[in-house]
Amino acid sequence: MQQFVILSIDGGGIRGVFAARLLELLRSSSKLPAFNLIAGTSTGSIIASCMALKIDPSIIVSLYQASGSIIFSKKFFFGPRLLEKAVQSSYDNGRLKAVLRQVFGKKRLHDVKLPLLIPTTDLKAGSGHLFSSFANDNPYLYEAILASCSAPTYFDPTVVDGKLLADGGMWGNNPILSAIAIARDHFKVPFDKIKVISLGSGHFSGFYDDENKRWGLINGWKIRTLTEFLASLQSEATNQIAKKLLNQNQLLRLNFKSDNLISPDEFDKTDELIQFADELYITEKIRIDNFLNPL
């Protein structure tokens, strides 16, 4: 059996531009292999869907640059911003929906011929829900993506086919294990034939320190900080498990590290994220080439 190549892309809001830029660099250097399965969570589902539809990565980067300020435009709120987070989501997912509909039109999941996997969270069932281009359910592609992007406190949940769905990043911000499980169970791929390119959206340190004296939800844990910490923790823990499941020559994880958190809605940081991608591509070029050349 030939090698089964998976592309896995983490969630992270505007930080998805990092993964999109990396794919652009790989495409320009003719290093992108043919993928057998593409998985993406939240913002990663946007990139994954574009890649599955053969949309050039440079166009994906431009999409983030052009649409960030539209998607993350604050709702009107008469009162303190601190109180706003207690009573409503910060952003109108109708804006995100409009952008996604413009990009993906009336395509349904089954219109995507390359196997595509999009994790979401079923709030009523209290479980994860996986959309895929090869499953029985067949919503509009933009609906599945919108559901996966509906991060708590940022966007309201999304209703798709009667299911109340939210961000897949609540349990699968790094979708690599779901992708491996699908490769094994659905496509019957032996472990030794699996190759994974896993793109992160930043690993940040310094979320908390021991100077905090009060650990309330507002003044200690801080709801947005906690949300980002848990997503980052899930991504890193999942990557560590994947490294134990796969050999070194089966997994290429590309991610950047920073002491300063870039929030998912900081659309003015796209240039900085592109720079992170450019720098990582240069410093990791030998490792990248060694992994991709045989593919």
From TrEMBL:
**Keywords linked to the UniProt accession:** Hydrolase, Lipid degradation, Lipid metabolism
The active site annotation covers S42 (nucleophile), D167 (proton acceptor)
Q: Which InterPro entries match?
A: Acyl_Trfase/lysoPLipase (IPR016035), PNPLA_dom (IPR002641), Teg/CotR/CapV-like (IPR047156)
Q: Which GO terms describe its biological process?
A: lipid catabolic process
Which residue numbers does the motif GXSXG cover?
A: 40-44
Name the SUPFAM superfamilies for this protein.
FabD/lysophospholipase-like
**Residue span of motif DGA/G:** 167-169
List each copy of the PNPLA domain by range.
7-180
Give TM regions: none
Q: Which GO terms describe its molecular function?
A: hydrolase activity
Q: Which Pfam families match?
A: Patatin
Where does motif GXGXXG map?
11-16
Its protein name is Phospholipase, patatin family
Per the UniProt record, the source organism is Succinatimonas hippei (strain DSM 22608 / JCM 16073 / KCTC 15190 / YIT 12066)
